[in-house]
Every structure is written in structure tokens, then in C-alpha cells.
């Protein structure tokens, strides 16, 4: 058995050499030999050799996916012929193929593969780690179907808790993942509960490492991620800003212990700055935004992520009436985004801000032009409440210029969008409705006054 393992390893190394030399036919042929040896090897428990070989397929897949797919199917047939349909190696190949189909959006094909792999692993391994992988993968496939995915995720969590214990890093990791699942489903209270449970585990593990004299860097990183996830929920969805702030602070302290400044730190700085901005603590927000900007400029250069921080700085300066800085940030950012495809949403944000800046300076023609461009982009990208805000501002602009018919039209469109996307009882919807009704009354009164004047003449 050891000799076969060594042969497989040597063949894999030779495959890598062929790939580096651009000899892809030779690489594929060499890899076939390694995979056949692994397929023919029957091991107790999970087929680790076969799994390792399948992982190596990742590089070949990028080059010759059709041939690799055919090879996998051939190996699946060979494995089933030698060891039967209920075999862990068969399950590994099925699981691998299903994962690769995800990349090609072949969702209908991967479901039966995941189901077969899960059935084999449940029968042969019971509630083992490989079974939880299959459960999680199948649940991920059903992620948009809440009632199909959730029981699988919960079962996977229960297995992990039973196998590893409730205070294990594997459990904390899965709780973080489950929190993300609930977040995407807008089930924020359940997401927060998962984050809190994960937070308790990471805190306990970190303290154990500290007492044992073990470096806590890995645990610190995990803990910081959970803190940010919970803080984001409190801030964005649960209206618990005061509780979000200490979580962001703690996460920042943990991140700052690591050497250097990376993009993960920049993302946290932006999240924290957004909280301060919403609380009108502009000086504190600006300091964090500028730190994040420096990191992204260094790591990414003129990138949409850099432009995103510039937008937030421009917005902050706008609220502080620092208009020259706003113009400078907008000009630089639009130059960045003009070179980057797929940045329409951020470009629309900048155009909208430029329109607001011009409107505030009574530059009505320019404001209307920028608002119009922003509106066209927003409507092209997706249905978004911001569309209602742009329409509302266009209504105000026309109102100020005594273009009342246009103002009424824009107000009506804004109200319709708000009712559709925010709901009839939302605070902003009430504002839009009030504007629309005031214009209706004003125009009716003007028309009545005009009629009386004509009659008098």
C-alpha cells in the first residue's frame, strides 16, 4: 500500500511539471495513471488517497474541464464495477463532480449526485465529518428554498456538536456559516443568535489558548470575523447601534494586533466608519475612512474598492458642506470607474451625489443632468429604493423652478416606487405621499384661481 501511495505522489508531481512546461496532454495522461491507481485502492473509512487526488484535479480542470469530467465519469464507472455502488470512493467522486457542476451552473445535474453521495456516507459512516460535508453541500444547493435547506443545516450542526463537542472550533465555524444563511433569508434575530453562540465559543477558545501560552492569532481572526458579523446585523438591520459600536471596536483591536495592514482590516474600518457616519460623528468616521483608503490605494491602486471609499468620503464632505473636496473626490472616482466594467452601481451613486451637490448650489441644469444619468443607471441595474430618492429630488428641483406638472409626475413615480419597494407604511413612503398630495392640492388651487381670473376678465 505504501508503495502505491508513493507511486501516486510521484505521478502527481510529474503532472505538475508537465503543466508548468505547457505539456497539457502529457499532464492529463500522467494524471489518469495516478487517478486509476487511487480508484483501485480500497481503504477503510474515508478514501483519503482518492480524495487527495480529486483535489489535485482543480488545476487540470481549469485547463481541460471536458476531458477531466469525462475522466471522472470513467473512474466512477470503474470504481462502481470494482467495489459496488455503495462505496466511499464512489461517494467522493460523486461529491467532487457535483461541486464542479456548481461552477458551470449545472444545478439540475448536481442535485442527484449530492443525494447519492449523502446516502452512501450516511450508510457507511453514520454521522461522521464526511456526512456533514454532504449535508452542507446539499443544503447549500437548496439555500433559497428555506424549508428544504434549513433541516439539513441543522442536522449538520447537530452532528458536529455530537462528534466534536459544543465548544469546538468546527462548531463555531458552522454557527458563523448558519448565521450568514439566516442573514440572507432576512431572519436577523436567528442570525444574531448564531453569531452570539459562535462568539461565546471563540472567546472561550481564545482564553484557553492564552492560559496555555499558545499564540492566539488564528482564534483572534475568527473572533474578529464573528464580532463584525454580529455588529453588522445590529447596525444595519436590528437598530441596535449602541451595541454594534463596542463589537466593531473589539474587532478592530484584534485586527490591529496582526502585523501589517491588509484588505480585511480596510473592510472593517469602512464598516466601523459607516456606523460613525450614521451617528453624525463625522470626524471619527473620516479618520477611519482615510485609513481604509490608504490601505486600498496601496494594495489595489485605482480600483472600484478604492473608489467606494472615495464615495464615502465625498458623501461625508457633502454633509459638512466641504464642496470643493466633494468635487475632487467625485472627479477622481469617476475617472477610476470609467476604466472598470461592471461598476455601474457605484458610478450611479457618484452621479447622484454630483447632482445633489449642483442642486445645493442652485446649478439646476447641471443637477438635472446628473440626476437623469444616475436615474438611468439605477433603473438599468436593479429595482432599488434609491430610484425613489432620485425621483423625489427631481420633483423638488422642478418644483423650485415652478415646473409643477413635471414635479407632480416625478413625485408620483417616486411614490409608486416607494410603495412597491419599501411598503405603503414606510416613513419615506409617507414623505413621498405628502409631497405628491401637496403638489396635487397646489395645482388644483392654481387651476381654480386661474379659472376665476379668466371669468373675472
From TrEMBL:
The keyword Repeat applies. PROSITE patterns: TPR (PS50005). TPR repeats lie at residues 8-41, 172-205, 266-299. Pfam families: TPR_10 (PF13374), TPR_12 (PF13424), TPR_7 (PF13176). The keyword Repeat applies. Keywords: Repeat, TPR repeat. Coiled coil: none annotated. SUPFAM superfamilies: TPR-like. PANTHER family: NEPHROCYSTIN-3, TETRATRICOPEPTIDE REPEAT PROTEIN (AFU_ORTHOLOGUE AFUA_6G03870). This is Tetratricopeptide repeat protein. It comes from Ktedonosporobacter rubrisoli.
Amino acid at each position: 500500500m505504501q508503495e502505491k501511495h508513493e507511486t501516486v505522489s510521484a505521478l502527481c508531481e510529474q503532472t505538475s511539471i508537465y503543466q508548468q512546461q505547457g505539456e497539457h496532454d502529457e499532464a492529463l495522461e500522467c494524471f489518469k495513471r495516478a487517478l486509476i491507481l487511487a480508484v483501485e485502492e480500497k481503504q477503510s473509512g474515508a478514501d483519503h488517497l482518492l480524495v487527495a487526488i480529486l483535489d489535485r484535479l482543480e488545476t487540470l480542470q481549469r485547463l481541460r474541464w471536458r476531458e477531466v469530467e469525462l475522466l471522472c465519469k470513467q473512474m466512477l464507472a470503474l470504481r462502481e464495477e470494482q467495489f459496488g455502488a455503495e462505496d466511499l470512493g464512489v461517494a467522493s467522486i460523486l461529491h467532487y463532480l457535483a461541486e464542479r457542476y456548481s461552477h458551470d451552473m449545472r444545478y439540475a445535474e448536481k442535485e442527484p449526485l449530492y443525494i447519492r453521495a449523502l446516502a452512501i456516507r450516511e450508510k457507511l459512516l453514520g454521522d461522521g465529518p464526511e456526512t456533514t460535508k454532504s449535508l452542507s453541500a446539499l443544503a447549500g444547493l437548496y439555500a433559497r428554498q428555506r424549508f428544504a435547506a434549513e433541516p439539513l443545516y441543522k442536522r449538520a450542526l447537530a452532528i458536529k456538536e455530537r462528534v466534536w463537542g459544543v465548544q469546538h472550533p468546527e462548531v463555531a465555524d458552522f454557527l458563523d456559516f448558519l448565521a450568514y444563511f439566516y442573514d440572507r433569508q432576512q431572519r436577523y434575530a436567528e442570525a444574531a443568535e448564531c453569531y452570539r453562540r459562535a462568539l461565546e465559543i471563540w472567546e472561550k477558545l481564545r482564553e484557553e489558548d492564552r492560559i496555555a501560552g499558545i499564540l492566539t492569532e488564528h482564534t483572534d481572526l475568527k473572533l474578529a470575523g464573528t464580532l463584525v458579523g454580529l455588529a453588522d446585523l445590529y447596525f444595519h438591520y436590528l437598530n441596535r447601534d449602541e451595541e454594534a459600536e463596542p463589537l466593531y471596536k473589539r474587532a478592530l483591536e484584534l485586527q490591529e494586533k496582526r502585523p501589517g495592514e491588509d484588505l480585511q482590516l480596510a473592510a472593517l474600518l469602512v464598516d466601523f466608519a459607516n456606523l460613525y457616519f450614521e451617528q453624525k460623528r463625522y470626524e471619527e468616521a473620516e479618520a477611519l475612512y482615510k485609513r481604509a483608503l490608504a490601505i486600498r490605494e496601496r494594495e489595489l491602486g485605482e480600483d472600484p474598492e478604492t473608489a467606494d471609499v472615495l464615495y464615502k468620503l465625498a458623501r461625508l464632505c457633502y454633509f459638512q458642506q466641504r464642496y470643493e473636496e466633494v468635487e475632487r473626490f467625485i472627479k477622481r472616482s469617476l475617472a477610476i470607474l470609467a476604466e472598470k466594467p461592471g461598476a455601474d452601481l457605484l458610478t450611479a451613486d457618484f452621479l447622484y451625489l454630483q447632482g445633489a451637490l449642483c442642486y445645493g448650489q442652485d446649478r439646476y441644469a447641471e443637477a438635472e443632468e446628473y440626476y437623469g444619468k444616475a436615474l438611468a443607471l439605477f433603473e438599468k441595474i436593479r429595482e432599488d429604493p434609491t430610484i425613489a430618492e432620485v425621483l423625489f429630488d427631481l420633483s423638488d428641483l422642478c418644483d423650485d423652478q415652478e415646473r409643477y406638472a413635471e414635479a407632480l409626475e416625478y413625485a408620483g413615480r417616486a411614490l409608486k416606487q416607494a410603495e412597491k419597494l419599501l411598503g405603503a407604511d414606510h416613513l419615506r413612503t409617507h414623505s413621498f405621499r405628502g409631497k405628491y398630495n401637496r403638489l396635487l392640492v397646489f395645482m388644483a388651487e392654481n387651476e381654480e384661481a386661474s379659472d376665476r381670473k379668466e371669468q373675472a376678465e
